[in-house]
Design a protein that fits this description.
Layout: E1 2-10, E2 17-24, H1 28-35, H2 43-46, E3 50-54, E4 57-61, E5 77-81, E6 91-96, E7 99-108, E8 111-115, E9 124-127, E10 133-143
């Protein structure tokens, strides 16, 4: 799924919640497997560009190259999905103050360790309740413009 440019806000009685629109694009291999090899010339007629609004996902711009060894580079966009729980080694987006970081997540007794994928960089170790710290979600997709 690729994010569209439009971000909408839906009103609810309690609070406003952002919904980001995504496009659901099927893979050509799946269409060919389903429809057969004879449709290769007319495949564009079979591809639909459905929009899906998802309130648990958002798109963020990557601001550094600290996760380059994991294939996430400065200038890429990442799709981030909010979760109730994160697992050891998940690639997550975190907010610390006004900055957003993409790092590997590790948990240990009320502390969170955030690591870059490059071994020469220092880890960040934070208390779960550090002011200004929050986990925005787990990275589910990387989008790069060529």
């Amino acid at each position: 799924m690729f994010p569209s440019k439009k971000v909408t806000a839906k009103k609810s009685n309690k609070k406003q919640q952002k919904h980001e629109e995504f496009f659901r694009l099927p893979r050509a291999e799946a269409i060919l497997a389903r429809e057969g090899e004879g449709v290769a010339e007319d495949i564009e007629k079979l591809v639909t560009n459905d929009r899906v609004e998802l309130s648990d996902r958002s798109t963020l711009l990557v601001e550094d190259n600290r996760m380059a060894d994991a294939g996430i580079h400065k200038g890429d966009f990442v799709v981030v999905q909010m979760r109730k729980r994160y697992h050891e080694g998940d690639v997550v987006a975190v907010k610390l103050g006004e900055r957003i970081f993409i790092r590997r997540y590790f948990q240990s007794i009320k502390r969170v360790r955030l690591e870059c994928n490059t071994p020469d960089r220092q880890s960040m170790i934070l208390d779960e309740h550090t002011p200004g710290f929050s986990i925005l979600g787990s990275v589910t997709q990387v989008i790069r413009s060529f």
